[in-house]
Amino acid sequence: MRLQSLLTLVNGTLLNKPAITSFENVSFSASKVKRGDLYISVSGNFFDEALHNGAYIVLFDSDIDVTDEEVAWVKVVSLNDALIKLIRYKMSKKNIKAFKIDKKTASLLNSFSTDNRLFYLNDSIDKNAEYLYKLDSNSIVLSTNSNYLKKLFAQIHTVKKGMTPLQIISSGVFSISFIYKNVYYDRIKLSSFFTLSLQALVTLFEENQISFSLNQLGSSFCCQVQFIDRFLNQREFGKSEQALIFEKNISLAKELFIYFKKNAPWANVIGVFPKRIKLLNSLNYDKIDEISKILLNEHYEYAIIAGENKSLLEHNSFNLKPKQPSLL
Question: Which of 7, 25, 179, 301 is 20 to 30 Å from the Cα of 32, by its Cα?
């Protein structure tokens, strides 16, 4: 790209008069800069290292002194805004599509093995700048954050729901069985809570020719489940009448609580939520060591633990041993 085109695109000010008129590539790390690159200081002002490695242009928004007149020093009002404009321009040349997805669908993504044209944007744009800038042509960007997508794309697509690329054979609160392309997937450890999202993702992948595998689906339960005994000792999957369902995302935990109350009418279902969350028929905790006390004192088959993941079981409040009956 020509230097003048960059100045126009990011509304930048050239602080000196170098002989340089263009750059080859963009680098977001000073250590990765190659001769002829534009260096963008997203992780700190490592200008000396970038210049030593051969940067032709440096882009920044702080107050600094020009130390090399042969290099183009471009100052912008907001580095983040300039970064977004540059990434948006670059991706527009590659026919990259953006899809807004809900948190339930997003939680399924780790259960898939997909090709590198699929990218889930779940963090700030500047932290993902290098990956976004270097995405391959015809890639797909997914995010639950509408603001991120609006900044980067002129058009945002929605994932189709109600499609049925999977033939559901049976479904329950802890597992489903289905057929996909003549392959039978028997009692996969995935709640029917996620069935529509699963179908939507498969449809998305098929329509956009994203390579994927369902082989990991049973090994990564989206909401972490641990079966226990009445003393909170861990038991194998399905080998107990009690289960803890952990969901870090509070809004998703609310949906799970409502789902289990509706779809497991034979069971007593409790929801354990942080104190700040007011939900009908839920129990609340202030500190995490209160969770084990709630679970020991309540009668339930299934307990939705909101705001925590399965690592909570390693907390010392869960290191309980069943009391031995007295002979007296």
Answer: 7
Residues of the chain with CATH 3.40.1390.10: 3-77
- Portions of the chain given CATH number 3.40.50: 224-318
pLDDT, the chain, mean: 90
Residue pair 250/273 in contact by the 8 Å Cβ criterion: yes
Q: What is the pLDDT of residue 220?
A: 59
Regions in the chain scoring below 50 on pLDDT: 326-328
CA distance 278 to 272: 11
| CA angle centred on 75, ends 72 and 76, rounded to 5° | 140
Q: What is the pLDDT of residues 22-67, one digit of tens each?
A: 998 999 989 999 999 999 987 766 789 999 999 999 999 888 888 8
Please give the torsion angle defined by the CA atoms of residues 114, 118, 122 and 124, in that order, rounded to the nearest 10 degrees.
140
DSSP H helices in 127-271: 129-133, 146-152, 195-207, 250-263
* Of the options 3.20.20.220, 3.40.1390.10, 3.40.50.720, 3.40.50.300, the CATH number for the domain spanning 3-77: 3.40.1390.10
For residue 168, list its beta bridge partners: 178
Under CATH, which architecture does the 224-318 domain have?
3-Layer(aba) Sandwich (3.40)
